[in-house]
Design goal:
Blueprint: E1 5-7, H1 12-17, E2 23-28, H2 33-49, E3 54-59, H3 64-69, E4 77-82, E5 85-91, H4 96-106
Parallel strand pairs: 1-3, 2-3
Antiparallel strand pairs: 2-4, 4-5
Amino acid sequence: MKQAKEFTSKNWEKEVLHSTKPVLVDFWAPWCGPCRMQGPLVEQLAEEIGDAAVVGKLNSNENGDIAAHYNIRSIPTLLVFKDGQPYKGFLGVTPVAQMKKVLLEAGR
């Protein structure tokens, strides 16, 4: 069973910016109710997408430098990265099918 990765300031460059696959990043925080609703959907996506893409979460409280760099003002925010650059994003709780569609599109 494939799980969502935990992104941090330490592994961000390697795991997200230098990834050869599209990457979905869920910007979240433990105190955020909608983030707790989004979490299981991100885990489900990680399992469904398999090795076609990288799926992970970044705790905005603990990694505020990255959240600030990408101007994350509201959470949950989900960003899809392609070739190290933001490709598309979602604001708020987002269905698995919608995230999966954009990830697969970014991988073409």
